[in-house]
Design brief:
mainly beta, 180 residues, 13 strands, globular
Length: 180
């Protein structure tokens, strides 16, 4: 795994007038930013903390506050390999979290902090996911091959590929667009 300097980053936003605002400091590896269906909650992953957190989000002012943990993977998973990376949301308000180094995507209920579903992939470094296709019913999953040894590439020949998962019985949403 890659080594990171802890708590050296920040969470920034840029508004429609291109004003940059620093919302949170002491971030290590920001990932998985996604808004709730009503745009009142910002879900957030700092990968090395192994949690999905939530902030109250004020759409009018573009501010976040009241950070709390939605799910702590360290306490939920028996196999501690990996960390949360990219994330998306479905039309039921459930979160889909790529768990890099584990080969898994987890569907999470953010209301109760539980894993509802697990998807397994033929490579360990799944990195992100997003719904797409004509009706947003396909889940597209990215993976990483960078940093694998020759032996690992042989064991995981599909590493670095894009996967499409069909038949999940749930749809995603069109992504938000930048106002500026």
């Amino acid at each position: 795994m890659v080594e990171f300097e802890k708590e050296r980053g920040s969470i920034y936003s840029i508004d429609g007038q291109h004003k940059v605002t620093n919302h949170k400091q002491k971030v290590t590896v920001s990932n998985g930013l996604i808004f709730s269906l009503d745009n009142k909650i910002l879900y957030y992953i700092d990968s090395l903390i192994h949690t999905v957190d939530a902030f109250d989000f004020d759409l009018e002012n573009g501010t976040i506050n009241n950070r709390r943990t939605v799910i702590d993977f360290a306490s939920k998973l028996q196999n501690k390999t990996g960390m949360p990376d990219g994330m998306t949301i479905d039309i039921e308000g459930k979160l889909w979290v790529a768990y890099v180094y584990s080969g898994k995507i987890f569907r999470i209920d953010p209301e109760i902090g539980e894993i509802l579903q697990t998807l397994d992939f033929p490579c360990s470094k799944v990195s992100s996911c997003v719904f797409g296709g004509d009706n947003y019913e396909d889940l597209y999953v990215t993976s990483i091959s960078h940093g694998l040894t020759a032996e690992q590439v042989k064991a995981e020949p599909l590493a670095g590929h894009l996967f499409r998962v069909t038949g999940l019985g749930v749809k995603g949403l069109k992504g938000n667009e930048f106002a500026g």
